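User: Fads2b, Gecarcoidea lalandii:
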Amino acid sequence: MAPREGGPQNGAISKIKLTAYKKFPTNYPHRSFEQWLSGKRKDDGAGPYWRVHNKLYDLTDFVDRHPGGRMWLQVTKGTDITEALESAHIGEGSEKLLQKYYVKDIKTPRNSPYTFHENGFYRTLKRKVQPILKKNGRGPSGKTVLIQDGLALSFVLLTFASTVLSSYTLAVLAGIALTCTINCAHNYFHQRDNWRMYYFDLSLFSSHEWRVTHALSHHLYTNTANDIEISALEPFWEFLPKPDKTFIQRFGSYIYDLILCPVIPFVGHFTRIFEVCIGRTPLRPEYLLPYFELFMMAVISPSCWQALKLFMTIHTSSNFVFVVVGMTAAHHHPDIFHDGDRMRDDPDWGLCQLDAVRDRVEVTGNLLLVLTSFGEHTLHHLLPTVDHSKLHSLYPAFLETCKEFSIPFSFVTWPSLAVGKYLQMARNTPNTDLPGYKHKAS
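Assistant: Predicted structure for Fads2b:
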């Protein structure tokens, strides 16, 4: 498939030719979820409606009745929600419900490159997993709840102990427990509104923002120029194979990872709070959870200064582990598709997800490790609203679908992905071979 011509919107990129998109998204590189949504509304051109495939729908009257929560439809008004609807709804109920809100057909081609043909890989997979999920359910199991609540409790207890004993060792352990807690909570914020998703806000991150940047951007447009988890990290982490990367961008992260990984979340958090203070962003109650932590630590600590130092130790440790795990969990290696590489001839959304995701053999099958380190990531990307506890039971249907479409699937090791992250950033030439899980080139 010939590369699609791409060009910079604001001079940020000069030479790379995109292959997933015809041109760079508006507002690229994106620095916030509002900026990404604003650009997507302009590019998708759905006006006051919601686009699904080649039809427009007015879901205004359905927003408050959406079973997953009003936020999902609220923020996506004026955009193409095809990928979001296809991946979030496994049965046919949503398609039947949409007919009630139909406005008109639209002839303008979709901005997204992906397809969802009835007999394609992704819809075939959804049909195969439906009876399994109907039998087992798709929500959290008792074991998932026990792990999530247990991790949150361990964070609270370690934070309390570190404060009372003024122990920085315990503070670091509390930070690690916090990382495990929020990694597990990531499972919950993909699902319908629930109170456990707010465990994510015990950190310096925001579950509300991550529902956009992670669930609606990264998950749907993985490793493309429309993936904010690619663009927001630039210019320090340049994962796309740009021919004009500087020497520092290609090799500098060996050094500045140690500095930036713990710092970036602080910058994001204080930027969020600043925007609340100037009235640009509304205050959400969960934004205050880290400050409640600090307040309680100050109450029981020998001094407010000591409480602040321990608080910073906890969150610095948590930030570092979270960013390192996130960057090495599934998506970055020279063998994995990144926008600019040759794209498969059949851009079925499910197949393109396989090209942009890898599973680590070390964590597969262990629910604790799956929940705390983004495990069984391929199935999670294909079926993001299904609880992690149900994913392992779907492997037979998934592997059967892979066999039916002649797609070789295998696991990789975590060390190979950790090394692959640096190799990918050093890569400044696009892959011309077909991506990863593919038919053999003739």
